Amino acid sequence: MCSELKADILNGSFTNGSQNWITQQNFYCTNSGYSGYRTAPGYAWFASSTGQPANSIWGTLTQSFIMPSSFSSASINFYTSITTDEITTTTAYDKMTCTVTDGSTQEVSQITLSNLDASSGYVGRTIPIPATMAGHTLTLTFYAQNDAAKPTVFRVDDVSLNITTNSLPDLTITAGTQTVTSSNIKAGSNIEVSCSEDNSGSVSAGSNNVGIYLSKDATLTPGNNGDIFLGNISFPSISPNSNSIVYSNNLIIPSSISQGNYYLFFWADGDQVINESDENNNFASIPIFVTDVKKEASGNIPKSYNLYQNFPNPFNPITVIKYDLPYESTVKLNICNAVGKVVKELINAKQASGNYEVNFEAGNLPSGIYIYTIEIWSNESNGSSIADFKSSKKMILLK
Q1: What is the rounded distance in angstroms from the CA atom of residue 202 to the CA atom of residue 263?
Q2: Which pick of 130, 172, 230, 373 has the fewest CB atoms within 10 Å?
Q3: Do 374 and 229 share a structural domain?
Q4: Model confidence pTM above 0.85
C-alpha cells in the first residue's frame, strides 16, 4: 500500500504487486547517507529482500487514475532514492523504473533510475504527461530490481499529479435568481420563467441557452425518467468572473401533464455549446405544483361550443371558467386587461370533447375589469387563421 498521496486525482492506494514492498514511516537504514529514522508524515518506504535472481524485476507498485477532460500541461511528480545496506554505491542491477501507460499497454512516459550513488540523497523526479491524454485512464507503475547479493532500499514518497488546466468559462445559474410566474400552475397554461447566469471562469463565455425542464423528481435526467424539455432562455456572452442581468421567456406547461408535485429545472448552457471547466454544477430548480384542467363527468356530449360566465364574479383572487367542446378541438383561453393586452394564457392545447372548467388565480394582478376570450378550432379547421368559435366575457377582480 502507498502513503498519503498529494493530489486529489491520485487519492487512492497503490496495488502492491509483491510482498517485498512494505510501507513504513519509520524505516531504519544503516547506510551512511540515510542513517537513522525518518518520521515525516506521508512518507512511503519500500524495501527489497535478498534471494531474487540478479537483474530480475521482483516487485511492482501500480495505480490507475483518470485525466481531466481538458488540460494544458500535466506531470507526475515524486521523490525517490535507491540505497544499499552497509555499502555506499549500487550496482547496475539496482534499478527502479517508473512508467505511465495508457490503458496499461501504450507507454506514455518513462524514467529509469539506476547506478545511483547512495550519497546523492533524496531526488525529485518528474514524468510529463502530454495533453493528448486528456480524458484517458492512465496507469502509473514503479518497477524495482536489484542485485541478489545484497538487500537494497528503494524509496518513493509524495507521489502527486500536477495539472495546469486550460482557461475555460464556468457557467452556473446565479443563486436565487430562478423564478416562475407561480408555484401553482395549470396544465396547458403559460408560464414566465426568469434567471441570470454566473461565469466564474477565467475567460468569456459565448452566447448560450438556459434549458428549462419539467421533472417529477429532484434529479434532472434530460430525455429520461419522464423529464420534459419546455424551452430555452437565451443569454448573450458573459465576461469572466461576472454575472448577467436577468433574462426571461414565456413557455407552456403541456396539457397532458398529470396533477402533482414537480421540479422546474434551469440548466445553464443546456445545449452544451460552451466547453466549461466544470460541466456538473450547471443546475438549479424550483418546486412547483401542476393542476389538471378538469373535465366534468357527464354522460352527454355537448351539442355546441359554449363559454360560460365565470363564478364567482366579482372574485378575489380565484374564479372558475367553464366551457364546452362538442368535438375534439384545439383550445386557446386567454385573460386580457381592459385595454386588450394578454396578461395570462390559461389554455393552449388540443382537448377531447366534453365539459371543462379551469381555475384562474389572479394573485399578482391589480383590481379591475378583465376580459377572458376563448378561441376554438376543430380538427378539420386547425391551422386556419379563423377560429370555428370565439367568445369573450368580462369579469371583475376586486381586492
Answers
A1: 31
A2: 130
A3: no
A4: no
